[in-house]
């Protein structure tokens, strides 16, 4: 964990995020907390990370997401040398999708 990132204020923000119950609540909260560009940047990096894990090329990713090669490279570095946050979330999303298929 990045010690520069770990502050009481960041803890409060993450605790607040953990109270959100659904996508609509996420939209309401994040529209208030973030600028449109910040939120679009977050979502773009998430899409880039998914595509990198799917072994897409930088060119394919740039074409589909509009991300620069610098952004793609930064996300790739996070995937390879970061805190494994993306992979944790990807695994949980996959589990959730499989559970929903089973229920249907």
What can be said about the biggest beta sheet? Answer: none
Q: Approximately how much beta-strand content do the residues carry?
A: under 5%
Q: Report how far the terminal alpha carbons are from each other.
A: 38 Å
Total helices: the number is: 6
- By secondary-structure content and strand pairing, the structural class works out as mainly alpha
Tell me the series of helices and strands, N- to C-terminal.
HHHHHH
Any idea what the shape is? globular
> Spans of 5+ residues with little confidence (pLDDT < 50)?
none
Mean pLDDT: 95
Number of strands: 0
Q: What is the CATH architecture descriptor of the largest domain?
A: Orthogonal Bundle
Number of domains: 2
Please identify which CATH superfamily of the largest domain we are dealing with. Answer: TrpR-like
Which CATH class of the largest domain?
Mainly Alpha
Question: According to CATH, what is the topology of the largest domain?
Answer: Trp Operon Repressor, Chain A
Description of the structure:
This protein is mostly helical. It has 2 domains: 1-32, no CATH class; 39-101, Orthogonal Bundle (Trp Operon Repressor, Chain A), CATH 1.10.1270. Helices cover 77% and strands 0% of the residues. It is built from 6 helices and no strands. The protein has helices at residues 8-18, 23-33, 36-53, 58-65, 69-81, 85-103. α3 packs across α5. One of its GO terms (molecular function) is DNA-binding transcription factor activity. This is TrpR YerC/YecD. It holds the Pfam family Trp_repressor.
């Amino acid at each position: 964990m990045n010690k520069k990132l770990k502050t009481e204020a960041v803890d409060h923000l993450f605790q607040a995020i953990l109270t959100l119950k659904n996508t609509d609540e996420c939209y309401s909260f994040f529209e208030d907390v973030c600028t449109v560009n910040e939120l679009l940047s977050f979502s773009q990096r998430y899409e880039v990370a998914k595509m990198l894990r799917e072994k897409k090329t930088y060119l394919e990713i740039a074409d589909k997401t509009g991300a620069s090669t610098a952004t793609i490279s930064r996300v790739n570095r996070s995937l390879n040398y970061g805190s494994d946050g993306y992979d944790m979330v990807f695994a949980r999303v996959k589990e959730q999708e499989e559970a929903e298929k089973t229920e249907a």
